Amino acid sequence: MGRRKIEMELVKDSSSRQVTFSKRRSGLFKKANELATLCAAQVAIVVFSPGGKPFSFGHPSVEAVAQRFLNQDAKPKVSIPDQVESQQESKVGKLSQQLNDLLKQLQAEKNRGEMLDKAIKANGKHKYEKPINELNMHELLEMKQSMEELRVNLKVRVSEIEASSSLLLLSSNPAKVADHE
After folding, report:
1. How far apart are CA 91 and CA 94, in angstroms?
2. Residues 95-117: pLDDT tens digits?
3. What angle do CA 91, 93, 96 make, to 5 degrees?
């Protein structure tokens, strides 16, 4: 199953429009980050949501790129010592790598979900598709056991996600402390 080509026209339903905006905004920012990382380009993007909320992405920053564009200078007028600039580039590189790693994990989880969906569909109709009041005692007990197993698995997965988020947060905090010293 491949991607469908959609017509370029306003999405009429406001909730669908918001979902479309969010997905396309993250894709746009991902591409801008890749352009900045791969080509050492200075990039700035400012987008307003359908609700009027601003979102921006900039490398090295939106302000620096906007100043350079408005002044048409080869280099931004903001004077940054070379050492600080190289430290910032190093941090940006590390953060870009973390972002790329997280995006790969996200894609792997999406692929895993699609595979699970396909496996469920391949097994035919699920035995719990009939209304709950039509299940017999044995089926209800099986369903209860399945739900308890699902709950345990979800708790384990949530713990894993929280742990990886904590590690990412901890790995980014030492850099922030170093900035203030």
Report:
1. 5
2. 888 888 888 888 888 888 888 87
3. 110
